[in-house]
Each structure stands twice: as structure tokens, then as C-alpha cells.
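Following up on my earlier message about (4S)-4,5-diaminopentanoic acid. Here are the inputs again, as you asked, copied directly from the submission form:
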Amino acid sequence: MLNQRSQQLFHQAQQLIPGGVNSPVRAWQSVGLTPSFIARAQGATIYDVDDQAYVDFVGSWGPMILGHAHPQVVAAVQQATGQGTSFGAPTSGEVELARLLIEAVPGLEMVRLVSSGTEAAMSALRLARGYTGRAKIIKFDGGYHGHADTLLVQAGSGILTQGIPGSPGIPAAIAGLTISVPYNDLDAVQQAISQNLGEIAALIVEPVAGNMGVVAPEPGFLPELRQLCDEHDIVLIFDEVITGFRVAWEGAQGRYRVTPDLTCLGKIIGGGLPVGAYGGRREIMAQMAPSGPIYQAGTLSGNPLAVAAGLATLKLLRQPGVYQALEDKGRVLETEIKQLAAQAGVPVWVNRVGSMLTLFFTSRPVKNLVDAQSSDLASFQRFFRGMLAQGIYLPPSQFEAWFISLAHSPEHLATTLAAIRQVWSET
Ligand code: HOZ
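Thanks, got it. Here's what our run produced:
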């Protein structure tokens, strides 16, 4: 048995941890396999506890844009560790990271660090509600903004993969404050606003959807959202936990030239350590305690190790040519996959923005959740298993993004494409 140690560990884990995992997307339920337990990783390669090596396109679900264990990030964390791991008091690194984030991301005038993307989105919504004095929010079907109560309505990622429409434990009164509409559907947004005039505090959107698989915004979608929010005094929140520093140095808001009122960040800005951030217009951010009355706090917020890893990562990403290199790698993969699919006669649709990509097993363009759900999940499962057997580690769900890193070399891409050719030649 190739993955004997993983099987043993999963058996033990299931007795001790619900479902054997600390986040549902890790359980590989939708592909019907035992998850690989990971021992270590370097660059674009991840090694499981049975010492199998894989080319990794999960990248810890987004943060590892430099590849794993980048020497400069490792050195920064080692140095920070020697100086103490947490103080519960301000540090100079937090000021430096805040300055870097504000310089890079157009919508940020002030920013607060938290410990996860969930916290960032939850706090941004509380702020929007406190600032506007309104209760309702609009989100998009298949959008995932972490697991806060208000946001687990028609959500993507693990909840979509597992086919859970909502989640028990969320009071109906809370879920009822969330209006979810189809992505890329401006008429639906307009209608939701008209039916709830003066009641919508915020509209939260992934400017490139990444949690129902990758779905790009249609031309005009983001600018029109900006305009509708302006007309109705709604706080526009871009959830850039995935796209921030991924699709451009300035994030998706720079790439698409639409500036939100508030932005949520996470993943890359912590270089692989737990982090999140939310920020935006000074006038709104000043409402947060202690400068204002809206409360949010955290013992480990701005943790020195996460800040050190984040700073080291961002300084490397700031170098010229980085985002062009990521774009080029993404383009090669997209173009070649489409060619292989055409040659093999496999009906697929590939969505890509920069270094985020999803291969949907449908021939129909994927512009929203309903399109994404037209994918043939049995074909995805066969593909995932075949790729794993060929040494390629993909997200174990049709509804997630592949993440390409700077560590993916032309050889890694060629190996991946050869694996796809092999898998499709067997079907
Ligand atoms: N939801 C993230 C993937 N789209 C990964 C975080 C997680 O749920 O574990």
C-alpha cells in the first residue's frame, strides 16, 4: 500500500479530530480517498509521510506563492522566533507591514491585522454594519468569505464541495440578513437592493471568485457594483483573501481598476503563517476601537512571526517581473491544457486569472455557480485520482483553484502536462 502511513494516521485522527481533519476541505471526501498526511515541502514539491513526492498546486490554498520553505522567509521567521513569539503589545514590524500593504493596495488608507481571513471578513462586515447603521448584506452564490455566521449562506469552498446548503448552528434570524445572488448578475444585485432599500450595509464580493473554482468577473461587473454601492450608500467590500498579492501586486482591485471601500486580506500577506487583515477608507476604519466604538480584538493579532513571514514574502513579490512570470506560467498551463483536452476529446472549460486556474469538467462557459455545478464530478474524481497517481497534487475538489507559484519551473509544468496527457489517454 503506497500511502500506508497516511492511512494509519487518518485512522487515528478520525478518533481524535472531527472527520480526522482540522478544516473540512482537507478530508478528500469528494474524491473518495484517504488524504495524504504531509511531512514536508520544498519549492513546488510536497512530500507525504510515506515519502511520496508530488508537484503541489494547492500551495496551502493560496499563501505559498513563492513556493514552500523559501530560504528568505524561513530565515525571517527563524530570526523573529529567537526574539520572542508573541507579546500582546505593538511591534515595529506591524507598522512596516501596514505601510507596505497601504502602499500596495489602492483601497487601503488604514489597515488592521487579525489572525485569519475569516476574522478579516467578519470584522469588515461588523464595521460596515456599525458604520451604516444597517443590518443586511449582499453576497454571491458560491462566494466564500470564511465561516462567520452571516457569511455561510450559499457559500463556496468546503460547504459547496460537501453539498451543504447552509450550516446548522446559524440562527435563521442571522442567515435572513444575508441576501445571496448569482455572481456576475447585475440585474440580481439591482433587484436585491431595490427590494431592501436603505437596509443594505455592505456588498461583499470576491473580485475574482476562487471558492467555486476560479470565475473571473465579467467586463463591467465590478465597476457597476462600485456604482450601485455609491448610489445606495452601501459599503463595497472586496474579499481579496485569495486574490490579494496573487493576481497583481495591487490585488484584483488594481488589476480591474475598481477601488472598494473595504478590503479583506489574508493568505499571502502572512507568508504561510496565520494572518488576516482588513482595511480601507480612513473615515470608515477610524470607527474601530479604540479610535471609534466598534469593537474587534485579538491576542495574536499582528503576531511577530506572521508579520516577519509576511514582510519577507511581500518584499520578494515586490521585485520587478514577478507578476509577469506568474502570468506566463499560468498562460502556458491554460493553453496546453486546452490543447490536450481538444486532442483527447475531453469536454472541459478552463478559467484562469494570473496564477489561479480551475479546470472544470463541463463544456459550458463558467460564469457563476450554476455553470460551475454543471461540471461532471465523476470525471473530476477520476482526473484527480489519476493525477495523484502521476505525482501531481491538485485541490481535492472541482470547486477550488489551482495555485501556481514562482517555484513551479518549466519542468514542473511539463511534468504536469505529461501527467494530464497520460490520464486522458487512459479515459
Ligand atoms: N476555503 C479555502 C479554500 N478555498 C481553504 C481554507 C479552508 O477552508 O481550509
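One observation from looking it over: Residues 23, 25, 61, 144, 157-158, 211, 400 surround (4S)-4,5-diaminopentanoic acid (CB under 6 Å). Hope that helps, and feel free to reply on this thread.
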